[in-house]
Design brief:
membrane, Maltoporin, Chain A, Ferric Hydroxamate Uptake Protein, Chain A, domain 1, signal, Plug_dom_sf, about 60% strand, tonb box, transmembrane, 3 domains, 8 helices, about 800 residues, 22-stranded antiparallel barrel, mainly beta, Immunoglobulin-like
Length: about 800
């Protein structure tokens, strides 16, 4: 019997040894500077096992049988590396050191405008894996919500349709955006309309967010941040991906992507088509979005030629008016005052009184829509001229055309350049009508860069020239008074803007640890606009700006895993179209000036990372709203002499265990205007006067600039293919104007989202993924944006605050098939 047990025990032990499972873990680094590489792809050749290096450059394979494996590692800009790893009696710890590739890659297109580890700038890189994990079909700002100092908002309350992002309190007009190095901001308003390129994240390889002035780039001046987006890069393997999402508020997203892989050792073709629909959280805030992306690239040793086209068609119901505070508070008496202040008729007033308190939309006309189509064409040519020289030239062209349609109640005919209409014994001076305000524009130009990198010196000469030609015009397509001509054009004006810039950047390594950086840019902007504006006022703008934007700094590697940096930058920015068009007669807006100090420290260990950054953004002549209006009632912005933003940004990551990891960031800031002159209008005791009243405020907070912004992502791997992530965002209170008046503010809020991701790798396809995103799981009632206006009359002050409520608990589910 003992012999039987002994034999059985030996057999069981042998079976256990035979079936013993091992793990393979390690890190991926740059062989030259030992920096970790985040987002490298690792595959066990001959199997379907693959993973991506994390924020620490770490990777791990579990449940591997004993044997010898071939580990294939790929990272853009580096040569592929295959490494043999033997698993027999212990787990394996592997360090992979990748060599920079001398084969031309798509990275050269954006390298001239991006920061790297030797650049003394404050930046965050978001890789493809992180983008796709959060990409359920919402606009790009909502994917960047977890980066430091970011605050996002959505008109419809769901992240689909019109969305916006502020970074360090700076709005979209002060955030420079490029796509593959090509300017994306609207040339006249300097705004960024992500709704025009829906689902662009599905075709994005990486995004770099630089905070502060950042490095020299193309397009408008960065007065708060830079968002540098790169679309799909070369993929040598054929693929196809189908993503389908569905969720609350009738939201659906379907996206099909494909790639041919490398054809005949030279050609790569990629494509994507997407369709997104949503009913929105706000009443009638529907979105019907279509987009596409196609590219064809030719690669031959030292040469790369790539043609890219992408764009979209959007039709969104307008939700940009907001919800009055009286409606949010369900105060009937205050709502009646709101209707009176707005001049609303009985139908509009009834809509206000009977709507849901958080989803009210003042628009009820069925075609109160924004309808716009925009296409982007890019051609990139890159050539390695010698071992140290690389040249890049890019051509681009973007046509766009669209309108927004609106129903207008009882508008004066004179406001449209029309004479009164006589019908019988009646003279009609006003009427209901439907109008369309059109924008048709063309934006084209080129960018270039010449890169030199050898030994201790890395130098870049770059720049570009761009021209914008835009027609603004309005039509009346229907009027209650029949003699109004059909499609009568009541205004037309043209804007022509030309932007030239040239910059030189140099990084010199005095030692292996000390690097100096100098970046000098000259930018010339000319802008002309002529014609008649919407309110029948004459437009006549002829502006010319010459800007010199120097930047300098140092980085010092305290040790192999610690880096400190400091930089000082000067940036200048031209006024936007409205600043010129709405300026009172005889007044010309001045350009803005920013002086930016950045100083930071970064330490990275095997399982932790910490970044700390101090910034001071000192403004001269910043343009702000004061409450003043011009002679046709349009709000105007005024240059304020001195204002500043100062803060500390902390960003960290911690790998608590093989299952737990945590990423977090917090920004603590002060954002002040040293002297601000508020303007309001007093209509007298009997509403028969008109007086402009000004009140001087000192050391007030800059509007929409919370003193605290924090984000957190707590990730837990439940088991091999299933992970859960708790995403938390805190935004401190914000003021709606620059008076620091608590009665004109947005309350602080904290929002928690929960994301589940489950993936399997069957033998018949690369991957099947199922993801679930539960937004606002604790049903926080909050508003993320707003505006205010007021006046005095009858011995009283009247104030109207409007807010943009965001959706309560809602969900999105996504199914992904990768072939």
């Amino acid at each position: 019997m003992y012999k039987v047990f002994l034999v059985a025990a030996v057999m069981l032990l042998s079976a256990r040894v035979y079936a013993q499972e091992f793990s393979m873990a390690g890190s991926v680094r740059d062989a030259k500077n030992n920096q970790v590489l985040t987002g490298a792809t690792l595959q066990l050749e001959g199997t379907n096992r693959a993973t991506v290096s994390d924020a620490f450059g770490r990777f791990r394979f579990d449940k591997l049988a004993a044997g010898e494996y071939s580990l294939l590692v790929k990272f853009i800009g580096y040569s592929d590396q295959s490494q043999k790893v033997s698993l027999s009696s212990a787990n394996a710890e592997v360090t992979v050191a990748l060599q920079e590739s001398f084969v031309m890659t798509d990275e050269v297109v954006v390298s001239a405008t991006r920061a790297d580890e030797k650049t003394p700038a404050t930046f965050t890189n978001v890789n493809r894996e992180a983008i796709q994990k959060q990409n359920f079909g919402q606009d790009l700002p909502f994917l960047l919500n977890w980066t430091p100092s970011a605050v996002v908002t959505s008109d419809a309350g769901t992240g689909v349709g019109y969305t916006g992002i502020r970074i360090r309190g700076s709005d979209a007009t002060r955030i420079n955006v490029t796509v593959n190095g090509i300017p994306y901001n609207d040339a006249e308003s300097l705004g960024t309309f992500w709704v025009d390129v829906p689902d662009i994240a599905a075709s994005s390889q990486s995004i770099q967010v630089q905070r502060g002035v950042g490095t020299s780039t193309n397009g408008g001046g960065a007065f708060g941040a830079t968002i540098n987006l790169q679309t799909n890069t070369r993929n040598d393997d054929p693929y196809a991906t189908l993503m389908s999402s569905a969720g609350s508020f009738g939201t659906f997203r379907n996206s099909l992507s494909f790639g041919t892989g490398l054809l005949n050792d030279h050609w790569v073709i990629d494509g994507r088509v997407s369709k997104i629909n949503s009913d929105g959280f706000i009443d009638r805030a529907t979105a019907d979005l279509q987009s596409y992306y196609f590219s064809a690239g030719f690669y031959s040793g030292n040469t790369m030629i790539k043609a890219i086209t992408f764009g979209g068609k959007e039709r969104t119901y307008q939700a940009w008016y907001g919800v009055p505070q009286s409606r949010l508070q369900n105060d009937t008496e205050a709502m009646l005052m709101t209707a009176s202040n707005e001049g609303w008729n009985q139908e509009q007033t009834n809509n206000l009184l009977t709507s849901n308190s958080r989803t009210f939309n003042p628009y009820t006309y069925k075609n109160q829509v924004d309808d716009y189509k925009q296409d982007h064409y890019q051609l990139h040519f890159s050539q390695r001229l010698a071992d140290a020289f690389t040249a890049n030239v890019s051509l681009h062209y973007t046509p766009g055309k669209g309108y927004y349609e609106e129903y207008r109640y009882n508008n004066k005919l004179a406001d449209y350049g029309l004479s009164p209409v006589t019908i019988g014994d009646s003279t009609i001076t006003s009427t209901d009508l439907v109008r369309r305000r059109w924008l048709k524009n063309d934006f084209y130009g080129f960018t270039y860069s010449l890169n030199y990198e050898k030994d201790k010196l890395n130098a870049i000469l770059g720049g570009g020239w761009n021209r914008y030609d835009g027609d603004h015009y309005g039509q009346i397509i229907w009027a209650q008074v029949s003699p109004v001509p059909t499609e009568y054009q009541y205004y037309f004006n043209n804007g022509d803007k030309r932007d030239f810039n040239i910059y030189g950047k140099t990084t010199y390594s005095f030692t292996d640890r000390l690097n100096a950086y100098v970046d000098l840019q000259y930018r010339r902007v000319t802008y002309t606009a002529t014609g008649i504006e919407n309110k029948q006022n004459t437009v006549n703008v002829d502006a010319d700006f010459n800007f010199f934007n120097p930047k300098a700094g140092v980085t010092f590697a305290v040790s192999d895993n610690q880096v400190a940096y400091a930089s000082y930058s000067i940036a200048n920015r031209e006024p936007v179209r409205d600043d010129f068009v709405d300026a009172p007669q005889g007044r010309t807006p001045k350009s803005e000036n920013l002086r930016n100090l950045e100083a930071g420290y970064k330490i990275m260990g095997k399982n932790y990372m910490l970044k700390a950054n101090y910034y001071l953004m000192d403004y001269r002549d910043q343009l702000v709203l004061t409450g003043q209006v011009n002679d046709v009632g349009a709000s105007i912005r005024t240059n304020v002499d001195k204002s500043y933003r100062m803060g500390i940004e902390l960003e960290g990551a911690l790998k608590i265990s093989e299952r737990f990891s945590w990423n977090a960031n917090v920004t603590l800031s002060r954002n002040k205007i040293k002297e601000f002159k508020e303007v309001y209008y007093d209509y007298g005791a009997n509403f028969d006067e008109y007086n402009e009243v000004s009140v001087t405020h000192r050391n007030t907070d800059i509007s929409f600039s919370p003193n605290i912004i924090a984000g957190s992502g707590l990730n837990y791997k439940i088991f091999k293919n299933l992970e859960a992530t708790l995403l938390t965002k805190y935004v401190g209170s914000q003021y709606l104007d620059n008076t620091s008046n608590a009665q004109r503010s947005i309350d602080a809020y904290v929002v928690n989202d929960l994301r589940f991701s489950y993936t399997v790798h069957p033998t018949f396809m690369k991957e099947i993924g199922l993801s679930l995103l539960i937004n606002n799981i604790l049903e926080e009632e909050y508003e993320s944006n707003g505006y205010t206006w007021g006046y005095a009359g009858g011995g009283q002050q009247y104030r109207e605050n409007y807010y943009f409520p965001q959706a309560g608990r809602n969900f999105m589910a996504m199914l992904t098939f990768k072939f």
